[in-house]
Structures are given as C-alpha cells and as structure tokens.
Amino acid sequence: MQQSKPKQQSKQSKSGAGTVRIIGGSMRGRKIRFSGADGLRPTLDRVRETVFNWLARDIAGSDCLDLFTGSGALSFEALSRGAGSVVMVEKNRKVAEALKVNCQSLNIQAAKVVNLDADKFLRHNSQKFDLVFLDPPFGKGLMQQTIDSLKPHLKSNALVYIEQEKSDQEYIPDDSFEPLKSKKTGSFSYSLYRFL
C-alpha cells in the first residue's frame, strides 16, 4: 500500500524569511515569499485546509480583514478561493513590503496592504468586513483588546477566525460572538466565531 506524502509546510530560513504555497483555489500551487520578523508564524497547511473547509460556503465575494497579516498565507488563500477583497494590516515595514511584492507577482488587484499597527488601523478605519482573520503574536495579550476594538468594523453575521497560543487563559469572546468551530494542536488553538 502506497503511503501518502506529507503535505509541504512553509519553508523558513534561519533569518525567518521563507515561502508558503497556496493550497487551494485559482492560485493553488503558487508560492508567496515572506520576510523574517519576530513572532512571524505562517499558518500551517493542514490548519489552513481545515479553516477554509469551515469557510467554504462563506468566502466567495466576502470583504476580508487580516490583522497581524505576517506572511499573508490566510489573505492569499482567501483571495485564491474567491474572496472579494482583502485588507492586509502589517506593522513591520519589511514584511508589508514583501506582501506588496507578492500582490504584484500574483497580479492581485483585490488586496490592499496597510503598513500600520492593528490598533491604529482600527481607530482610523471606516470599512466593515464579512470575515476577519486574527492571528496576533503569541504572548503579547493582544486578543481581547483587538476583538473589543474590532466590533464596530464587523458586518452583521461576520465571521471571525482566531488563532491563539494554547494556555489555561485562552481568550474566549463574549456573548456577541457565537462559537462555530474549534480545534487544538500541541501549541495553539484555532476557532471560528460568528458576530451576532
């Protein structure tokens, strides 16, 4: 019996720079390159596959926000699978520049890269979103403040994906969010919520 090959994960050099392969949709198989930065962790292939299975009926035409974008793996996957637009918010200038280069090389018109801190972006943003990806740096205690600031920017029934470090103090959103799906790995948990 032939064994299946393990799925290719992101490749990172010692500097933290690397590549991630888009795993589904119109850009399947294309690679995105990212710059190294402290705390940058591209979402694993198997996790992205699960998340986008969860989102399969909701992704087409959606206006997405990717706070703490990092490598852009979630943003580019969303665009590949039919998202209407994505705003990528990344405070590290070098990482944001790499996102812009990827948008150009993939000929993506529906993405906007914003080189700002997530909190500052939310203070000045007026757009509302159907889908938000939240994967802040671990160990910084950013989740609750970010979700509280995010609420005015969510459309009714918006979906919010949360990835956070696994601990006894994992943040659980308040009653304005309905839990839909959740999974855990050895080091982190990831969940999908609907804004009510």
From TrEMBL:
Among Pfam families, the record links this protein to: Cons_hypoth95
Superkingdom classification of source: Bacteria
What reaction is this protein's catalytic activity?
guanosine(966) in 16S rRNA + S-adenosyl-L-methionine = N(2)-methylguanosine(966) in 16S rRNA + S-adenosyl-L-homocysteine + H(+)
CDD domains, from UniProt?
A: AdoMet_MTases
Per UniProt, the keywords (alphabetical) are: Methyltransferase, rRNA processing, S-adenosyl-L-methionine, Transferase
- Segments of skewed composition (Low complexity): 1-15
Show the InterPro entries listed in the entry: DNA_methylase_N6_adenine_CS, RNA_MeTrfase_RsmD, SAM-dependent_MTases_sf
Instruction: Region Disordered: list its residue ranges.
Output: 1-20
The family database entries (Gene3D superfamilies) matched by this protein are listed as: Vaccinia Virus protein VP39
Molecular function as annotated in GO: 16S rRNA (guanine(966)-N(2))-methyltransferase activity; nucleic acid binding
Q: What is its EC number?
A: 2.1.1.171
Family to which this protein belongs: Belongs to the methyltransferase superfamily. RsmD family.
Function according to Swiss-Prot or TrEMBL: Specifically methylates the guanine in position 966 of 16S rRNA in the assembled 30S particle.
Q: Which protein are we looking at?
A: Ribosomal RNA small subunit methyltransferase D
Gene designation per UniProt: rsmD
